[in-house]
Design brief:
single chain; 356 residues; two-stranded antiparallel ribbon; mainly alpha
């Protein structure tokens, strides 16, 4: 008779429980996925490459929002404005100082993080709806400042648009999107490692304590004001990195290219759909919403062909209607997001009633 082994998969140590890769095949699968992404210039179509690049910088912005809203419980509606700050900062550093992208990105993150600290100051006194209104102010104040006379000379004049130079690293030209997407993928891998480690540190545990019960956290010695400001700084820094990536990939940055309240609400919707306070939530949310947006756009064009009298209305309004409907359905039937459903699937698989 063979040796009888217990059915399912069990955690026998803390290290095993906290491990990201619990099986060797998971490591091999991760290597295959990463290698496939880095080979995208060879097999990807222009649509796939542009979609992956968009997912990358959007994912980074949602990761920052996840630290603030998912871990700390502080609602923010100004993430797109901090992306604009990061985009302008990285563009000006590249143009005026000639900094390469691997230097302009972290400096832009620090600048955007500093701006985020300013709008995070009300978090000690207000919360919930009132804090959302305070962060919403950033979405109107920052674009308005970019159009003021004392900044027009630096931020592209009255049009508020700056043309970003071609990205060159060690003599290699990354001007084409098919090559720049490799930089975006690399930055996403770095931010993913950072966010995973933040959730496991003392900082991450303190942020979760503030989210769950700020009064109890304060009684246990957690400095609410300090940790809330750190969360705002990190969220804005990630947004600054996302904005800088978008500016360099699109070869331009400006107020008229987006970065408005619609994008901030979209980021929050991605986080809700993906799963608040989870490492996979930003991935699920960003990929799901962006792919859904592409499908809605193509479906809107098809419907416009069937109803030519309503073509303009269908093409402009079908996408937000579809996104709003999907968001409402998730809030009703899957309020904890796709990441929670994925964790339930993994748990059921590990405890499957079959010996291995």
């Amino acid at each position: 008779m063979g040796i009888l082994r217990p059915a399912g998969e069990f955690d026998r140590s803390y290290e095993y429980d906290q491990a990201i890769f619990r099986r060797p095949w998971q490591i091999y699968l991760a290597i295959i996925v990463i290698a496939t992404l880095y080979a995208i210039p060879f097999w990807g179509t222009p649509l796939i490459i542009s979609t992956v690049n968009r997912i990358c910088y959007t994912l980074i912005a949602v990761q920052g929002l996840n630290i603030l809203t998912g871990y700390t419980g502080q609602i923010s509606l100004g993430q797109a404005a901090f992306m604009l700050v990061g985009g302008f900062a990285s563009a000006l550093l590249s143009i005026n100082l000639g900094l390469p992208i691997f230097l302009s990105l972290p400096v832009a993150a620090l600048i955007a993080g500093g701006v985020g600290l300013i709008f995070g100051l009300p978090s000690l006194r207000v919360k919930g709806f009132y804090l959302a209104m305070a962060t919403l102010a950033a979405q109107f104040i920052l674009p308005w400042l970019s159009r003021q006379p004392f900044l027009e000379a630096y931020l592209g004049g009255t049009e508020g648009f700056i043309k970003v130079p071609v990205t060159v690293i060690f003599g290699i030209d990354f001007g084409e999107l098919s090559s720049f997407v490799l930089i975006s993928i690399t930055v996403v891998l770095i931010t993913t490692v950072l966010t995973i480690n933040i959730s496991r540190t003392r900082l991450g545990r303190a942020l979760v304590a503030v989210r769950d019960n700020d009064l109890a956290a304060e009684l246990l010695g957690v400095n609410l004001f300090s940790y809330k400001l750190q969360a705002f700084f990190l969220a804005a820094s990630f947004a600054g990195i996302a904005g800088a990536l978008r500016a360099h990939s699109e070869r331009g940055v400006g107020v008229e290219l987006g970065y408005d309240i619609t994008d901030s609400v979209l980021f929050l919707g991605m986080l809700v759909i993906g799963g608040l306070g989870t490492n996979l939530g930003p991935y699920f949310g960003a990929i799901f919403v962006i792919v859904l947006d592409l499908l809605a756009r193509s479906l809107g064009v098809e419907l416009a062909a069937f109803f030519p009298d309503q073509a303009a209305q269908l093409q402009s309004s079908f996408r937000p209607i579809m996104f709003g409907l999907i968001l409402v359905l998730f809030l009703i039937f899957e309020p904890r997001g796709l990441a929670h459903r994925w964790s339930l699937f993994k748990a059921s698989w590990r405890l499957r009633p079959f010996s291995r």
